[in-house]
TrEMBL record:
It is a peripheral membrane protein. Coiled coil: none annotated. It comes from the Bacteria. This is ABC transporter domain-containing protein. The keyword Ligase does not apply. It comes from Paenibacillus borealis. Its main location: membrane. It is found in: Cell membrane.
Length: 261
């Protein structure tokens, strides 16, 4: 199931920030791969360059940041050669992202249902009625019981865990094959964390998505990931199958992260 060509292949990516006369290379010669239905973790301490890697893949690096070199392939698309218009289209149809703080990622003045329907209608030529039906189905798929009741609620009226499920539904409604999850459970309490992790595990099989999971939490990695890249100061210092990496870490930094768990 995880055999075959990569869904996402990042090769020798370098992303830097120029501020005044200073240049910070946040991502320095990073190469990573995600296969269909695989959960790949990118771990490392705060400031190691995980989020900048994600933003580079999504085409969301803004000045003073610049992607200096490398290649990012998503399916048959060469992302660094895409225009911003093409990238906007790909974000939604091919790749989607969920963030740490789902409440802030949602629009506070629109109902949950409205936001889902708008995403559907942005990507599919369907009537309002069909969009609603699709939105409701996707809510159910993301583990939201009683979607009809939730449809007319505003983000502040539902819990953080439910908001994250709504974000997952929004991410998947357009049929994206790659989901980038940037610290998806960090802001949630432990029991809700476990539920969301389970949900991610389920949707990768059911919706055939590959997931790039960005986290500093090795517990989350052990629970969910198949493959791990360890990042430090912008570089990948070690990578491997999750079982091998945990049982036999080679790089001192990986050993340190595992000991600090
Ligand atoms: N807008 C920016 N301007 C200047 N430098 C930046 C900017 N964004 C990121 N950086 C640099 O990139 C480095 C990596 O940041 P990044 O957010 O990717 O780390 P991270 O591993 O995701 O950390 P965290 O877990 O705290 O989000 C930072 O230490 C900072 O030096």
């Amino acid at each position: 199931m995880m055999e075959g060509p990569a869904l996402l292949k990042v090769s020798h990516l370098r992303t830097s920030f120029h501020t005044g006369s200073r240049k910070v290379t946040a991502v320095d010669d990073v190469s990573i791969e995600v296969k269909p239905q695989q959960i790949v973790a990118l771990v490392g301490e705060s400031g190691s360059g995980k989020s900048v890697t994600a933003m580079s893949i999504l085409g969301l690096v803004d000045p003073p940041g610049i992607i200096e070199s490398g290649e990012i392939r998503l399916g048959c698309n060469n992302l660094l050669e895409c225009s911003s218009r093409q990238l906007r289209k790909l974000r939604g149809t091919e790749m989607a992202v969920i963030f740490q703080d789902p409440m802030n990622a949602l629009n506070p003045v629109l109902t949950i249902g409205r936001q889902l329907m708008e995403t559907v209608m942005l990507h599919k030529r369907v009537s309002g009625k069909e969009a609603k039906a699709l939105a409701l189905r996707q809510m159910q798929q993301a583990g939201l019981a009683e979607p009809e009741r939730l449809f007319n609620k505003y983000p502040f009226q539902i819990s953080g865990g439910m908001c994250q499920r709504v974000m997952i539904a929004i991410a998947l409604v357009s049929g994206a094959r790659l989901l980038i999850a940037d610290e998806p459970t960090t802001a949630l309490d432990v029991t809700i964390q476990a539920q969301i992790l389970k949900e991610l595990d389920r949707i990768r099989w059911e919706n055939h998505v590959g997931i790039l999971l960005i986290t500093h939490d090795l517990g989350v990695v052990a629970e969910l990931a198949d493959y791990v890249y360890v990042m430090k100061s912008g570089k990948i210092v070690e990578s491997g199958n999750v079982f091998e990496l945990f049982s036999n870490p080679v790089h001192p930094y990986t050993k340190y992260l595992i000991e600090c768990r």
